[in-house]
Amino acid sequence: MSTNVIQLRNFLEPANTIHVQPPASHAECMACSPGGLLGLRFWPDGANSVVASVRPRPEWQGYAGILHGGVVSTLLDAAMTHCLFHHEVEAMTASLKVRFIEPTPCAGQLDLRATLSDQRRHVYLLDAELMNHGRVLARAEARFITSANAHRPPRGEAPWAAGLTHVDRR
């Protein structure tokens, strides 16, 4: 990791706070591990939310100057995953719905916020936003299931449908 990236991280990290620590199972995550492609770090923000800031790199763009939609989705998914880590929950994404509101610039600082909105049995419902200067550029809603239940479907159901009353098949 370059000295510039480390200096930037030190500058962006809130003073006197402890970041959300991913579990050992996430040690090689491409989004949040220290050597990962995105190198994300999240901080608690209230009881149910986490926040992070990131500066996109040129290789993350799709069209010139615009962040690739897959990277936007990854950032939002990672934010929600870390919100669960903040609650000491390890879970996997069961469904992810992303709404791209405006093109996301591949320059400057982007801010992420994820919030745990509900839990039903082993299913967690979360929301996330990607912002630039307070302006929301993308939003996501997701359902996560705990890792232990990913391999043990209840009563013949698919694991991703556990505890859900409706599955959108569009």
Q: What this model shows, in words?
A:
The chain has 170 residues and is an alpha+beta fold. It contains three helices and six strands; from the N terminus they run H-E-E-H-E-E-E-E-H. Strands 1-2-4-5-6-3 form a six-stranded antiparallel beta sheet. The protein is globular and about 45 Å long.
Layout of helices and strands:
Blueprint: H1 3-12, E1 43-44, E2 49-54, H2 69-86, E3 91-100, E4 110-120, E5 123-132, E6 135-146, H3 147-150
Antiparallel strand pairs: 1-2, 2-4, 3-6, 4-5, 5-6
Arrangement of strands in the largest sheet = 1-2-4-5-6-3
Using only C-alpha atoms, the radius of gyration works out to 16 Å
Distance between the termini: 42 Å
- Shape label: globular
Give me the strand/helix succession: HEEHEEEEH
Count the helices. How many?
3
Which percent range describes the beta-strand content?
A: 25-35%
pLDDT averaged residue by residue: 80
Fraction of helical residues: 10-25%
**Largest beta-sheet details:** 6 strands, antiparallel
Would you tell me the structural class of the helices and strands?
Answer: alpha+beta
Q: Write down how many β-strands occur, each being a DSSP E stretch of 2 or more residues.
A: 6
Brief rundown of the structure:
The protein has 3 helices and 6 strands, in the order αββαββββα.
Considering the chains and any ligands shown, give keywords for the structure.
170 residues, alpha+beta, six-stranded antiparallel beta sheet, 3 helices, 6 strands, disordered N terminus, disordered C terminus
